[in-house]
Protein 1
Amino acid sequence: MPVNNAMYDQMNWWNDDSSVSLLSTSINPCRISYFHDVLSSRIGLQPSKVRVLDVGCGGGLLAEEFSKKGWKVTGVDQSAPSIELAKAHAAKVGLSIDYQVSRGQKLPFEDETFDVVYCCDVLEHIPDYPTVVAESSRVLKKGGVYLYETINRTLMSNLIAIKLLQEWSWTRVIPDDVHDWKMFIRPEELHGAMRAAKIQNVETRGMTVDNPIGFIKAILRHRRGQTSLGEVGRIAPAVVSDDMSMGYMGFGIKSA
């Protein structure tokens, strides 16, 4: 089934029971910890002196986490309602984030504007994702850092992301047109798109659920109306792993 990206125009990004709440409660803590460690501890960047671009920011779930850690964040998304919601929520919590409406395939910035560009939970929704990678590279400074996170195209991701979370009536927690398994991206495919865009991959790590049995039990409780979807994520947080059979994230450096 083709993905329905128009659904994000009606998305309540900050509701603890919305279909994206697993991102904020389970996945976000894992990826912001990993990305912040890569940028500040391993590469040695100082947040206050670095311009960061979030490509496909949605309602600002990850952009706010970067901003809280001191990074100077710009976020772009093609969904104007999502951008308006992101602006309103940032203002509500006192964060200064530059949000703009834009497609990832044509970013409204000059060449080599940003020190860091990241694209998370986005590329698997875009048929021409190599174009987004190339455009991200265009606005990234030479020697700049490209961060990514997406879903692998494997039997495991078909079972979990498609069957368990989207299709099976007794466990379904997200709409059945959020993901199309055929659009999931194998690491070697993404790394090839990065190389074509002059970004050399440095590291790729897997992302798995820390408590898979608890995760399924929590989903069943959610289906019975006993807990929010956000609470499901808090019960079963994502962790960095060597297992890339479901999701993965990593970073590359743009060639000088």
Protein 2
Amino acid sequence: MYLPKAKLFPVTFLLMAMIHVPLFAQDVPTNQGGNEEGFKSIFDGKTLKGWKGDQVYWRVENGVIVGEITPKTILKNNTFLIWQDGEPENFELKLDCRISVNGNSGINYRSKAVSEISLALQGYQADIDGKNQWSGQNYEERGRAFLALRGQIARVDYNGKPQIIGSTGDKEGLTDFIKSDDWNEYHLIVRDNIMIHMINGHVMSIVIDDDQNNRAMKGLIGVQVHVGPPMKVEYRNIRLKEF
């Protein structure tokens, strides 16, 4: 059902009160450093212990996880490095990411493996791309596709259709908070059927998933190397807090 703009604000403010996140991106301080109580590192900074991935594309170098496509290792399908020590349900995930300007990647969560050969995942994804066209949005890999673009608060209805019910800011304006070809901190807050994607302390997108037939309430965490031209993506400081 369509909601006139005047009726969006009460819904949005109620949502913000429920999840304790400020409404507008400019209200959230950057570089919070924040309260790390309860977080644990899930990457040792030295090896891929506890992770599973195709070592043609994944390695550890200078204390960071590197995913890379070279002219000799072009992909036919997206491939993932998958954390092996659990399938979190309600959690917060923080990590730093740097991606080449032509790169395409993402952070998957509440996902399931669909191919042991290609190490493919299906599930929610916080998008990352070097041109910042999609960074921060919520995209369901191998599923319902775009759930919320950057700047959107979306409710996925019982038929699996995203309905925009509010805004976290202007899509293009939010790119001002994302550094190009440099390190950015991603912070995902996932509780029940609400998923919040933040970059550098700014809310990029929020999804409320009421599609009981297709949503996932727990699953695997993984990071992606996407099909495409040669590219490089790096991850470090990966910390998880489960509720």
